[in-house]
Amino acid sequence: MAVRDRWTPEGERFRKQLKELAGLEVRAGFQSDGSCGEGTDITDIAMWNELGTVNIPSRPFMRDSVDKHADDINRMLTEQKAALLGGATAGDILNTAGIFIKDLMQTEIEQGDFVPNAPRTIRRKGSDKPLIDTGRMKNSVNYWVVKKGSAD
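RESULT FIELD:
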């Protein structure tokens, strides 16, 4: 008599969620806000601050969000692994991860230890704190759950 393995309902659900997770990814950062005609697009402002320019020192708030918090990120991922085993969906897991990294970036924008603003900028803004002026950049940080490898 041949033995035939069968999936339990829980095992089948888990397998389905793993398959869904394998085809998706979370991206965090900025999407164009379309302000090129009326001002500078937020994606440009974020890039110039992250990488620096001839006139702006690098203030790597995106990289620091990951580099400074690797232990926190690993802890969150371990918690999400347990959540998946406990019945959470792929969407639940990816949205939790997206919110987590979004929060890290927003906190880094607020609290990061960066080169202070130039005297000219301080006179205009009234502060030597970089990356914070109107709150536009901090409030523009977002995340997306997309098909892995997509151009979205």
